[in-house]
Automatic annotation (TrEMBL), chains A, B:
Listed InterPro entries: ATPase_NBD, HTH_MarR-typ, ROK, WH-like_DNA-bd_sf, WH_DNA-bd_sf
Pfam family, one: ROK
Family listed: Belongs to the ROK (NagC/XylR) family.
Biased composition (Low complexity): 1-14
Renumbered residue ranges of the record's region Disordered: 1-21
Protein name: Xylose repressor
Domain HTH marR-type, residue spans: 30-81
Organism: Streptomyces djakartensis
Amino acid sequence: MTAPPHEAHPAGPGRSLPDTQQGMRRRNLARVMHAVSAEGPLSRAAVASRIGLTRAAVSTLVDELIRSGLLEELGPQRPGRVGRPGSALAVSGRGPAGIGAEIGVDHLAVCAVDLSGRTRSRAERHGLNRGRSPRTVIEELNELIRLVVAGAEGEGLRPAGLAVAVPGLVARDARTVVRAPNLDWRDTDLGGLLPSGFPLTVDNEANFGALAELWLGEGTPRDFLHVSAEIGIGAAVVVDGGLLRGTRGFAGELGHVPVRPDGPECACGGRGCLEQYAGEEAVLRAAGLEPDEDRVGLLAGRAAAGDEDVRRALRDAGTALGVALTGAVNLLDPESVVLGGELSALAPWLLPSLRDELARRTAGPACPVSVSRLGPQGPLLGAAHSVVRAVLDDPAAVAGRA
Amino acid sequence: MTAPPHEAHPAGPGRSLPDTQQGMRRRNLARVMHAVSAEGPLSRAAVASRIGLTRAAVSTLVDELIRSGLLEELGPQRPGRVGRPGSALAVSGRGPAGIGAEIGVDHLAVCAVDLSGRTRSRAERHGLNRGRSPRTVIEELNELIRLVVAGAEGEGLRPAGLAVAVPGLVARDARTVVRAPNLDWRDTDLGGLLPSGFPLTVDNEANFGALAELWLGEGTPRDFLHVSAEIGIGAAVVVDGGLLRGTRGFAGELGHVPVRPDGPECACGGRGCLEQYAGEEAVLRAAGLEPDEDRVGLLAGRAAAGDEDVRRALRDAGTALGVALTGAVNLLDPESVVLGGELSALAPWLLPSLRDELARRTAGPACPVSVSRLGPQGPLLGAAHSVVRAVLDDPAAVAGRA
DNA sequence: ACTAATTTGTAAATCGGCATGACGAATAGC
DNA sequence: GCTATTCGTCATGCCGATTTACAAATTAGT
């Protein structure tokens, strides 16, 4: 019964939970974990000054966290300042681990991340998943998960949750895949197929990619738009450090934003959707190429080799993206736009026209567009880290299950 | 030093304030206020069961709130059930009041709202404000404010804050108007010109309109898109019961979403922005009418009279709005779209084509579009209520200043 | 080397705030 | 009238953070 990680914040004081002392304790435990996790080894006194509690209070909190195996005492710090040196505290390397999994069109991947953010175990398998039944794919995935879990346990870690990234729309129950065109899945509940030993979260690949960017990217703001693309074009909206999910969980469907209202018909019923200009299939067609296995690699290779058709196709896709993003930027006023996922490999040829278009359509200074450093492994890392963040956000919950 | 009302929620446990008993007390005071305010007269026991605290705890909280003048004891309730009847509690009709003000293109309005939401005093003045200097306009506004404040005090109310709605972009400091095309104002700091007796908040008219819809509308969801228009077209995005403001506070600029990327040039630098198809000036031009004083009234009148040119112009505007809203709905997945402000008067002729366009471009069931019941007085009410909500959200803050 | 100053971590006492349990008060049903 | 039920309050206790005090460990100064 853990709260889904990084849900939008609960409402105002009206409807939230009653505020009792236990809740206070829990929140303060969380603050200690966040402080230690974010700012490396820290003494009790340092934590106290950072989170605004007294040293005495922090002492008891830390005791509890150490007993739960979430924090480790590293011993006396090497001092440069006067006074008694503090004893360094760090998140435990043998505590809970976040298990992240990714179901891609042409691969499966699983990894385990410890509280400090280090990847401690991983496994993957290549091979097309398109059209295969959810059951078959998930069975293979479960095999990888067993492997990774065993590996993590071998290092003294205890899996605290599983988060699965899928290339498609996921309902707000974080269990059922409503539509995944790349896999030909519709309305499939993954809840029953995946291991049930620990809390499960299923979410859109783009969402997890955005969270990875938020947590792992350097200098990533708390308000940005994360764009990623495979066959469809997904975006994730990060507002004030949290994901915007929408009523049904479908927020971020950039692919069907109208770019040319009178353009060709789209499967969605509309006309001139972005997907028809910047979607993978559209770009391949415009470049005069056949759809093949590693589509993005093919495009990137040809573009790098100087293929003018491909470059033109990518330029045009960038322009279309620019139009759609102008709308999004006007509406959301984000601090930046980040291109992530598979898109980052094509960024060199997309970016110039995209930035041009965005700047041309913006009155003041245009919203900066950057490329994710994490690239295609963003979703997997984001998934694993989402479990870790859930632990940091409520350490008492996992401690209780220890 | 009050927190700005209804800012986006603070971050996760990492950066928030330390959690001490006083904070707990404050939050519980707020919960009591919200419960009583939302669900009419309530006994202490009823409040306790609603917010999950014990009767004893609620008793002390209520005592404090009564002493601060925020709650009133109405005496024994008329009972229908067995057992000792409870003593009804209601928000005070003599406590703090929210002062809301609106600067429109052709009018000024001010009102005072008590904690129960009733308007207790109001004043307005008609006359064009376009082109007049901020100083002159604000001086007139201050006169109205003085009037309303005096009226409120005459009824035993104590002004707790002032919120001003302006038809333009407001910086995140909630004080300076960055751009207000309808007034010809640019980068003007209203902080120094307005009365300084109580906390001040300046915000976009569309934002306050959306908040009014959220708080006063019946059955309004917690995630919706509120569209309003004067010369520009503004939208406000409500996510999980709070406003999405954007990094600079400019979120919701629907007017410059590209609708036809190759359309005519716009003042913003772009081409084919929504404003050029659905903006007031554009619609008037398309209808073959001259800009005049009461533009919206003129359009509504002609359309109602059956003027086919006007009706066509409004139909086309609705279609353009539909295209822009398709993008927005795809991106945000709101529960509904609400047409508010001056737009609501034109809704009968805009809605059909708007809904058509939105439905045509949506795969599943289209996002429902409704019209605000509050109409043009939404912004003023939203402003006044924002102050009231700030009191409900942190009663201890005003009690301290009592 | 010795002392003073400074900082850390912990222990004891205190305080604030909610829960618990008991009680008188006020009502409905019999 | 009697009982069951509900409401508001009081005394008590528990939990959690603060305050105050103190021993331990280091640097700076003489």
